[in-house]
Design brief:
Elements (H helix, E strand, L loop, with lengths): L1 E5 L9 E4 L9 E11 L1 H8 L12 E2 L4 E8 L11 E4 L12 E5 L3 E3 L6 H5 L2 H14 L7 E4 L5 H12 L3 E6 L4 H7 L3 E4 L5 H4 L3 E6 L3 H7 L3 E9 L6 H6 L4 H10 L1 H9 L3 E4 L6 H12 L7 E6 L3 H10 L5 E5 L2
Parallel strand pairs: 9-10, 9-12, 10-11, 12-13, 13-14, 15-16
Antiparallel strand pairs: 1-2, 1-4, 3-5, 3-7, 3-16, 5-6, 6-8
Helix pairs in contact: 3-4
Length: 333
């Protein structure tokens, strides 16, 4: 099968086109013929080696964390899926590889594709949808009437998280450029801050939850808008010792997280605010919940551009540019 992979960690080198054997499925796996995949900044971070301590992959490695496609084989113990099912998924860490023609995925990480979405639309959802779900529903337990600040509202995670937070009944603030304001209002954003002209910490006060996706400087300022007892959850770091323990990472990685997160944890403790780092996990059951919201019209996919499979490197470069409004998708078929 055709695939795009890396043989070493390097930020500026393109993905390598390769011809690889079709994946061999295990008893609980389904083999997916990939119709569409989407590109995430996580792919770029793994390519550069930024997360090699957290997810120490063996190289060469096929990248890609989102997939929509059709089941073409099912393992002997698969219970919930059959050949011909249209599915979507964020494969688990160490089972990624959606920049390819086929992928084997454990059935627990798979969900039936929303009936009202195309393959391209469905492929845009899993990673950002699960990230938003795990921040807002699983970790924060956002309730009606609470206030949620979602940074970078026009990005992949932002466009989904705004819609989910509004569905949960929250007042939603976000940062973006002014030209994106009307679009973000249509998704449900209540308070829009032009990051080019305003500092969000001068506008927002007494928020319950912040979803941080930016750099450490922005993260530190985020604590200024959260009320005591509130939560700051970062998907861009720094990771904490608690995260290292949960992931069962080696002692030296835990030691590194103690150092990397020390300042942030001090700020959080001083202000009585909960800080945590989220590295999203694959979860087919949560994705099925998301399917229900999509089919009910509560959440819609937001796609910026669709590239062909042969343009995978161009798609990754476009994501790295930071210009995408919503998701960038690779169409296989």
């Amino acid at each position: 099968m055709k695939a795009f992979s890396i043989s070493r960690y390097k930020k500026d080198s393109p993905l390598e086109q390769a011809n690889l054997p079709e994946p061999v499925i295990k008893d609980h796996d389904v083999l997916i013929e990939i119709h569409a995949a989407s590109v995430n900044l996580l792919d770029s971070k793994i390519k550069s080696g930024e997360f090699k301590l957290i997810v120490p992959y063996k190289l060469p490695l096929v990248l890609g964390h989102d997939v929509a496609g059709i089941v073409v084989k099912a393992g002997a113990k698969v219970k919930n899926f059959k050949v011909g099912d249209e599915i979507y998924s964020r494969p688990a860490d160490f089972q990624i590889g959606t920049f390819a023609e086929f992928i084997a995925i454990h059935e627990k990480d798979v969900a039936l594709k929303p009936k009202n979405l195309s393959m391209e639309e469905a492929a845009s959802i899993p990673l950002v949808g699960l990230t938003a779900w795990q921040v807002l529903v699983e970790k924060s337990k956002v309730q009606k009437g609470q206030k949620v600040f979602i940074q970078a509202g026009s990005g992949g995670v932002g466009t989904f998280a705004i819609q989910l937070a509004k569905h949960l009944g929250a007042t939603v603030a976000t940062t973006a450029s002014e030209k994106s304001f009307d679009f973000l209002k249509s998704l449900g954003a209540d308070i829009l801050i032009d990051y080019k002209k305003q500092d969000f910490e001068d506008v927002l006060i007494d928020y319950d939850v912040v979803l941080n996706s930016q750099d450490n400087k922005t993260l530190e300022k985020s604590f200024d808008v959260v009320k005591p007892g509130g939560k700051v959850i970062s998907i861009s770091g720094p990771p904490t010792p608690t995260f290292a323990e949960e992931q069962k990472l080696p002692w030296y990685v835990k030691l590194a997280t103690i150092f990397l997160s020390s300042k942030i944890r001090r700020i959080a403790k001083k202000q009585n605010i909960s800080y945590s780092f989220l590295f999203m996990k694959a979860n087919g059951a949560q994705l099925t919940e998301i399917t229900g919201l999509i089919e009910a019209g509560k959440i819609k996919p937001v796609i910026d551009r669709v590239f062909s499979f042969n343009q995978t490197n161009d798609a990754l470069t476009y994501v790295e540019s930071g210009r995408a409004k919503g998701k960038v998708v690779i169409k296989m078929k």
